[in-house]
Amino acid sequence: MAIKLDLSKAPTTLKSVIIHQSKFAESIQGDPNQPNIVIIPGEDESENGVIDVKRQIKDILIQFRIRDYVAVTDPEDPQKVLILSKKDAEKLDSFHCHHCGMEFVDEIQLGIHQRLHLPF
Description:
Helix content: 25-40%
Oligomer: single chain
Structural class: alpha+beta
Largest sheet: 5 strands, mixed
Order of helices and strands: EHEEHEEHEEH
Number of helices: 4
């Protein structure tokens, strides 16, 4: 099963970073019908493939200190990962820690989690 990575909402520089810095860079294929979507072939049909892709992208965003964009699973297609601005992701009830990239379903859980990153 292939995983789709939708880069349509990401700026051009971010698209380039994600494509070239990821461990799956050599296996990425373009979708001729949708130029802003790339396909990452995967052997496994479980959600582990999607989770791995999201983790890779989150790691890249953290490494390059890009805090305005996040990776989320598309609510309409569980085999598709969207790169969205934090504001757009929050509209989908997906809140992200800017320190570690962990995802939460509401701001309360995010606030509680972020206290872990603060020194006493």
